[in-house]
Structure formats: C-alpha cells, structure tokens
Amino acid sequence: MSYWRLFYYIVWATHERLPLIDDHVERLIRGVLHSKAKDLGAFIHEAGMVEDHLHLVVSIPPTQSIAAVVSQLKGSSSHAVNHVSTPAGGRFQWQDGYAVLSIGERSLAAVLAYVRNQKGHHAGGTTNDLFERLAAPAQRHAGHSRE
Fold first, then answer.
1. Is the model more confident about 88 or about 25?
2. CA atoms lying within 13 Å on the CB side of residue 139
3. Which fold has domain 8-133?
4. Residue 74 burial (CB count, 10 A)
C-alpha cells in the first residue's frame, strides 16, 4: 500500500455564472460529489457553495489525474441535478474548465474553514480575492492554464 497526502483546492462555476444553486440543488450536488469521490478513491474534505459556484477541498490519489476526477465530479453532479431537480431557468450546466491549487498540510485547516463558510463570506464581503478569482470562467493564469 502506498502512502500519500495530497490536498487540492478546486473551484468551478455554473455555466455563465447563472445563479442555479439553491438549497435543494446544493444538497443534491453535495451528496453526489461525496459519493462519486468515494467511487474514484478520492475524498472530499469540504465543499462550499453559493448560487453560482463551488469550492472543494479534496484529496485525489496519485493513481488518478486531477482532470479525470474533476470531469467525473462535474459530470455526475450536473447529470443528477438535471434528472432529479430542474433548476429555475432551464438545464443545469457547469462552466467549461476549473481552477486547482495544491494545499500544504499546514494551511489545510484555514482553507477548510474558508470553504465551509462560503455563504457567510459572500454575504459579509469577506471573500478571499485569490480564491474567488479562480471561479471566473474566462480567467487565465499566464503559463499555467489552457482551455
């Protein structure tokens, strides 16, 4: 058995940043994400959502690519929402792409607390500019991303 401790901060948004995530949709997405992550051998430490994007802290085993896991998480969650709940305004869809940062174990507790309190940060204007910019669908980081 191999030992690994990998932590990733992942952010993605709804298509065109439409406000499609209400409390019911959030509960559904949260359940699907945890279930799919378990199927993939990954573990979601925390998921925080607001109406147009989500933040995840996840551990992905080195046998899985980040891109494959994120693709599966996005695909299974949008599929579930479209087949169980129809959000206002039509079909539920995630934006193309996502942002990912690796997290050091020393920073993990602070990042988990930030993700856990997404609604509070957005309501109170205490969001982290870097983390929130990551959710911008057209955001490009020179030399570090491709679409």
1. 25
2. 18
3. Alpha-Beta Plaits (3.30.70)
4. 22
At 85, the pLDDT band (50, 70, 90 cuts) reads low
- pLDDT tens-digit profile of 38-70? 999 999 999 999 999 899 999 999 999 999 999
